[in-house]
Design a protein that fits this description.
Elements lengths: L6 E5 L12 H13 L4 E3 L12 H15 L13 H14 L4 E3 L9 H11 L6 E5 L1 H4 L5 H9 L5 E4 L5 H9 L4 E4 L5 H6 L4 E4 L6 H12 L3 H15 L7 H11 L16 H14 L1
Parallel strand pairs: 1-2, 1-7, 3-4, 4-5, 5-6, 6-7
């Protein structure tokens, strides 16, 4: 079975022009560069891609642009939405665009109970694509616990989970309760810990900027080569930890700018970073480079 969610999948930042319209040409070039530099695929329309600020037409075109750039088997769009039927429509759009899998948050308009979570994933599964669940209780207030993930997997509703809690103990609990459920690293600053614990992939933020360093880290850690991985991880960690902070979108886009790439501004309500924070991220990026 082909598992396109394995490997290092980049949660892509989205470039805008000066008037904050989507720069599709730059985005397509960015996707191609990521794959050319060793990444296995891209994950557009996640939080890093500022999907909440996009119009439906923009969001759909982002998916099509990524597919045209790197091929549908390498594209796993985020299909999160407040309503389950809306999330299903985004999964169907991804399917029709040629994508091989999708990533789905639990219901996030309110603190959903387990019954609502099941119906949400059951509804979106009707699109017929493999679903990678995204566990981010910090933002959604819904925790996909290892026991709940095991039930979702047991009913054939998900194939993997992007685990963003930062709690590395969950890797072992998930493996005990659902050995065949693929664990994916969701937070850049625990990538070594979770790959050591058996994660099958990394849905990553900072490869947007320091791509080759992150690819080298992933390949070494996934191969169990800690002699190579640990020094890289120590060097990268002052940067990687920004992936789990409120300012992560601005931080990663600024890091891209420092690296000579097309990061640029965010759409409101996100604001530019304070000068001291920007200086810290810039210095960390320069040190890695």
């Amino acid at each position: 079975m082909i598992r396109p969610w394995h490997g290092i999948m980049v949660a892509t930042a989205l470039p805008f022009t000066r008037d904050l319209t989507v720069d599709y040409d730059a985005f397509g070039a960015h996707c191609r560069r990521l794959v050319d530099e060793g990444c296995d695929g891209v994950v557009p329309n996640g939080s890093l891609g500022e999907y909440q600020t996009l119009t439906p037409d923009e969001r759909a075109r982002v998916v099509r642009t990524a597919v045209e750039a790197v091929g549908g088997e390498r594209v796993m769009p985020g299909v999160a939405a407040y309503g389950s039927r809306e999330a299903l429509s985004w999964a169907e759009q991804a399917r029709d665009a040629g994508c091989a899998s999708v990533m789905l948050l639990p219901p996030n308009a309110y603190r959903a109970d387990e019954g609502a979570v099941f119906e949400h994933y059951r509804t979106v599964a009707k699109a017929g694509l493999p679903i990678v669940a995204y566990n981010n209780p910090i933002d959604t207030k819904v925790d996909l616990t290892p026991a709940l993930l095991a039930r979702l997997f047991g009913e054939g509703l998900i194939v993997a989970v992007k685990e963003f809690t930062g709690d590395v103990r969950r890797a072992y609990m998930i493996r005990e309760l659902a050995p065949e459920l693929d664990l994916l690293v969701g937070s850049d600053d625990v990538v070594l810990e979770l790959l050591t614990a058996g994660a099958k992939g990394w849905i990553a933020g900072f490869p947007n900027s320091v791509t080759r360093k992150c690819v080298d880290l992933y390949r070494a850690a996934a191969a169990g080569d800690l002699t190579t991985a640990l020094p890289l991880y120590r060097d990268l960690h002052p940067l990687l930890r920004w992936d789990a902070r409120v300012e992560f979108v601005q931080a990663i886009k600024l890091s891209m700018d420092v690296a000579g790439l097309n990061g640029g501004a965010c759409r409101p309500p996100r604001l530019p970073l304070p000068a001291d924070v920007a200086a810290e991220i810039s210095a960390a990026t320069e040190k890695v480079m």
